[in-house]
Every structure is written in structure tokens, then in C-alpha cells.
Amino acid sequence: MIKIVEIIAKRNSRYQLNILKEDKPVKHILSEITMFKYDLFRPKEITLKQYNDIIKTAEYDLLFIKALNFISYQMRTISEVKKNLRKSTEDEKTINNIIKELKEKKYLNDDKYVLEYVTQKIEFDLVGPRYIKEKLIGKGIHFDLIDSHLVKYKDEDQYDKVYQLIVNATKFPIKKPYNKAYMSLKSKLINKGFSMNIVQSALISNKELIENAVEEDDLLIKDFEKLLKKYDKNEYEDKNKIIKSLMSKGYNYQLIKKLFE
Predict the structure, then answer these.
(1) Which value, in Å, is the radius of gyration of the alpha carbons in the chain?
(2) What are the residues facing 28 on neighbouring strands?
(3) 253 with 179: CB under 8 angstroms?
(4) What is the DSSP letter of 4?
(5) What CATH code is carried by the domain that includes residue 8?
(6) Which residue from 170, 176, 175 is spatially nearest to 189, judged by alpha carbons?
(7) Domain with 121 in it: what CATH number?
(8) Which domain holds residue 160?
(9) In which band, very low, low, confident or very high, does the pLDDT at 255 lie, cut at 50, 70 and 90?
(10) Of the candidates 188, 191, 225, 192, which has an alpha carbon nearest to the alpha carbon of residue 210?
């Protein structure tokens, strides 16, 4: 027989059982759930089978509580919960059983997770569908499930968000040449996950908005004057070097030509 000689209450509804097993002291930490399951709130003797059952159940219960704590702060995907549990155990069977129980109790639901995630991003965030898809794939969601919900992200929704980002980017003067400002904004919009054709269309439609925000003339004159300290604009080769240098900075060729008139 195995003797439970002492029960010590710990924090967070945990208990320490001091046990004599083959006359050797052994300590185990159990959850309150396990304590109630096996009525362990007083010293007593138990069989080896009971002891093994208790320890196995205790390990499961503690892992289950760990999973509950993990999903209590925010919604999680099945993959995220599995990854978190693997920090504490390598027993895939136990992990799968915990996932099964969490799903049965409706604590885990990838379909609901994706629905809420996509809806929130469409309603509140200035990001495109590709961004959403990449984030969800990173959370372990299969792309078929993602696509089934992303169909609600219409082109007009994308365009509205891209337009808002362009407006935000042009609220203040842009201290760079137009071509660089254009390419920088285009890169930003693509990186936010919007479709290329939507980005291109929005940039073309709002070209004047970008042009008005760009202070290219003053910047061009400053860079031109710097180059005149090094090159003679009246010399053919120097003139070409000046033009090449300014164009590499993103300045408009027609504006550059006017400087030599």
C-alpha cells in the first residue's frame, strides 16, 4: 500500500501530496479537480493502481488547466494550443485528448476563430486579404478554411482601405521626389496585403493627391545645386552625369530638363 501522509494547500488551487511509496517520501502537485475526483483531502492508504491512476489523471488535469489559462486571455487556434502544451509534455496522445475535450466543450473552434478574425480585420484594420491569410496560416489554420471566410473581403472594401492609407500618407508634405514617393507608397500598400490591381488602380486614381503632397521642386533645386559644386552643367559629359544622378534619386526627367533651360 501507498500512504498519503500529508496534504498541503498551495496557491492557485494546487495541493502538494506528501506520500510514502515503498517507505520512500515522494511529493506530487495536484489540481483541486484531481483532489475532488479521488477524495484526497485527508491522509489515507491507497493501492498502487489507485496511485498510478491518480498521477496520470493529475498530469492530464494540470495540462488541461494550462490550456484553459492559455485560451482565457484571448481566442486561440488548435495549433496554438498544441504548441503551448508541447512546452510541458511530449505525449501527443494526451495533447490530442485535451484538444478533443476543449473542442467538445466549445472552448476551441477554428472555424469560429477565423470568422471573428477576418471580420475584425475587415471592419477595423487597414490591411488586405493577403496579410490576413498569411497571419492565419502562421497560426496553423488550413488555407481552405481561410479562403472560405476571405470571400467576404470584397474589392470595394480593399479599395476603400487603400484610399484611406493614401489619404493618411498625404496629410503632410512628403520630403522625397514623386517617383520615390509613389514607389514607397506602392510598396507599403502591397506589404499590407492588398491586391496588386487594387493598389495600382487606387494610386492612378489618386495621383493628384500624391503630387500635391510631394515637395519635389524645392528638393530638386537643392540636389541640383549640390551637384553643380562638382560638375559643370555646360559640359556635355557633366550634364549627363547630373541628369543621371538626379534621375537615380527619383526626380522627374521633364523637371530636370527645365533646370538646364
Answers:
(1) 33
(2) 17
(3) no
(4) E
(5) 1.10.10.10
(6) 170
(7) 1.10.10
(8) 155-213
(9) confident
(10) 188
How does DSSP assign 80-136, residue by residue?
A: HHHHHHTTT---HHHHHHHHHHHHHTTS--HHHHHHHHHHHHHHH----HHHHHHHH
| Number of domains the chain contains | 4
Cell of 29: 502537485
Helix axes 110-124, 143-150, angle to 10 degrees: 40
Task: Give residue 59's identity as a one-letter amino acid code.
Answer: E
33-41 LR contacts (CB < 8 Å, sep 24+): 33/61, 33/65, 34/58, 34/61, 37/61, 40/4, 40/7, 40/15, 41/7
Residue 89 pLDDT grade (very low, low, confident, very high; cuts 50, 70, 90): very high
pLDDT digit string (tens) for 143-152?
999 999 999 9
Map grid coordinates 485560451 to a residue. Answer: 71
Distance (Å, whole) CA 165 – CA 163: 5
**Do 32 and 70 reside in the same domain of the chain?**
yes
